[in-house]
Amino acid sequence: MSNTEIGAIKSLLQETAKSLKGHARRLFMARTVKDVFEGVTSRAAQEMGWNRATISKGLHELSSGVECADGRKGLTGRKPAEAHLPNLLTDIRDLVDSQSQTDARFRTHRLYTRMSAAEVRRQLHEKKGYPKEILPSAETIRCKLNMLGYHPVRVQKTQVKKRSPKRMPSSKKSNAFARKPHSPKTNC
């Protein structure tokens, strides 16, 4: 093969590897290394510009047939509070439903609650029996309230809009100070 043909094949392999993601990319790289480079990862890494650790992981996946779980959402990292306390969201909903109301003007479907996140945390401890040590922080509970659709805001009563402004006695056009014609005084 000529150098141009080798360069074209090399660029085709690199573009194909770039277009794939995750497990499929590692399998493609492993098959390429196995078939083209006789399984030598260092030579494939030098020629193709691929990461040797990625190639090694792909070769391991190819030989074992099992996909490696790495860095994908949900498989690593800290679990949410619901994973540790499975009834937490339903208990929060039970506490907050009685203290919430919809938008007073019915413009949105948001639910406003009078309870703060710290108050919800305190009531979870007192009414639902959660130990304080395992309860999430007030900030986490605030995030859970927002996730459930509750917005902890001071609820205000709606005020009736006045239809017409009332005339003040100090205004010149007020009825109280309007000049009335003098009637003659009579002593009757």
Give the CA-based shape.
Answer: elongated
Residue windows where pLDDT falls under 50 for at least 5 positions = none
Rg calculated over all Cα atoms: 37 Å
The N- to C-terminal Cα distance equals 135 Å
Query: Number of DSSP strands?
Result: 3
What fraction of the residues are assigned to beta strands by DSSP? under 5%
Describe the sheet with the most strands.
Answer: 3 strands, mixed
State the secondary-structure class. Answer: mainly alpha
Helix content: 40-55%
Number of helices: 8
- The largest beta-sheet arranges its strands as 1-2-3
Would you list the SSEs in sequence order as H and E?
Answer: HHHHHHEEHHE
Describe the oligomeric state of these chains in a short phrase.
single chain
User: Could you tell me the mean pLDDT?
Assistant: 81
General description of the model:
The chain is mainly α. It is 47% helix and 5% strand. The chain has helices at 3-19, 22-36, 41-48, 52-64, 81-84, 88-97, 117-126, 138-148, and strands at 100-102, 111-113, 150-152.
In brief, what are we looking at here?
The protein is mostly helical. It has eight helices and three strands. The protein has helices spanning 3-19, 22-36, 41-48, 52-64, 81-84, 88-97, 117-126, 138-148; strands at 100-102, 111-113, 150-152.
